[in-house]
Amino acid sequence: MISIALRHLRLPVLLGLVMQCAGCSTLRPVLYPNDHYTTVGHAVAQGDIDACMTRAKEYVKAGGADAQKAKEVAKQTGFGAASGAAIGAVGGAVGGGGAGQGAVVGVATGATAGLIHGLFGGFFGPEAPDPVVANFVDRCLREKGYELVGWK
Which of 10, 71, 78, 152 is buried deepest, with most CB atoms within 10 A? Predict the structure, then answer.
């Protein structure tokens, strides 16, 4: 029964990875073109953004953000497995393959989708920045003379 689930799992995993690539981009701050931005230019401003983002991620990482991410991944994996089992059982019963076999395939597929989503963010777009990171970057950029208008 497990070999059937693994055989049927290849396509959903590949589709999940392909869908994930649609959301591979990372959100970055968008700066208002104030006097400071105009003076230093786009290249320097992008370097300052990179520096502030690096500092923010290091700050958050030192505060235990990795443990929170691990909990979120576990939650997404569990949710994916539970919803996949339910959907697979119904699909197996309706499609004639049997609710049990459908549930096994559903668990494997749902857990994999939940794990991928938890590890890499949303399937259809970039994940919103962590609020602490976003606030840190905003303050860092303001201290350098920039004005943040949003994230894109």
Answer: 78
